[in-house]
Amino acid sequence: MPGQEGIPSVFSPMTRTLGDLSYFTKSMIGMKPWKYDHSIHPIPWRDDVAKEYQEKKKYRVGVLRTDGVVDPSPACARAVDEVVAALQKEGHEIIEVSPPSPYEALVIASQLLNADGCKTYKSFFRMGEWEDAGAEQMSFLMSLPSPFKYVYYLWVKYVRRDEIWAGLIKDWKEKSAYEQWKWVTKREAYKAKFHDWWEQEAKIDFMLTPPNATPAVPHDGMRDAVSSCGYTFLFNLVSPKLLTFDIRKVADLNSSITPVA
Amino acid sequence: MPITHVDKALDQLPSDFSIKKLNGVAQGAYKLYDATAMHGLPVAVQIVGQRLEEEKVLAIMQRIEDALGDEKYQLLEIE
Q1: Cβ proximity of B30 and B22 under 8 Å
Q2: Given an 8 Å threshold on Cβ–Cβ distance, is B11 in contact with A243?
Q3: N or C: which terminus of chain A has fewer CB atoms within 10 Å of its end residue's CB?
Q4: Tens-digit pLDDT profile for residues A176-190
Q5: Is residue B19 less than 8 Å (CB to CB) from chain A?
Q6: What pTM was estimated for this model as a whole?
């Protein structure tokens, strides 16, 4: 999405069943989309990979129970527990993992997503169009004059003693090109760290996490919950461009949660 | 992938839960959490692979669905 390429968006199908999703994905890739979309990697469907994981006796599963920013609500924690129990029963190896700080990823991602001060996406608005409640919160903070913001930051950090929120709003402003590139460097460093952690340390087949801290929120609920998107935003940061779609996103079928990225 | 539904009997916040003790991000999320009002909503988990691992992740999701057996997510009836 123009203006939000610091953390590329992912477009994903939402399907009713897993069978639908597999069919869709396989069909899309079967159409060789790289022939007409320059942004797609020319990788045909790999049946051998699918077969390998259909048959693999024992998975090594990393469970991430919390991102350390927003603990999952009881319902979301219970869903993770249920899957862990089912996998254990089948004899898979379950380990608790702690990847490089998901909070650090959230800070980097939120700085980069709207490094232009929310200007580009707003430039597409026509008369009578407005931001959704979540985006409005972001651009409101963005537009506060910096002395006010600094006072707010100090109040959050030293009076409310909320290091997490304070760290997110500290640099929440429109960035110069130079500042932007500094954040891009941080993003790349985090991605490298995450990849090394996965390959060298965790050595897992896959990671199991809640997709969000709470179930779907009511309309305009993102006004309050806009920053609570760490469980998916993290992966927008570390591995964007999964062909055209990110199956993890689809994972919350029927859910109306829309992370900002 | 969807796993279960919110259950007002199982998913209430603990009695000593205090939203004031949470950080600013968590407060925004928990302001809206209400197991009774959300009763019946789908609850999912996220299966994460490395980049460009669609085939693998889909295969794993199928295995998880099989492992859940009768406990697997029940779709809403289509009329």
Answers
A1: yes
A2: no
A3: N
A4: 999 999 999 999 999
A5: no
A6: 0.87
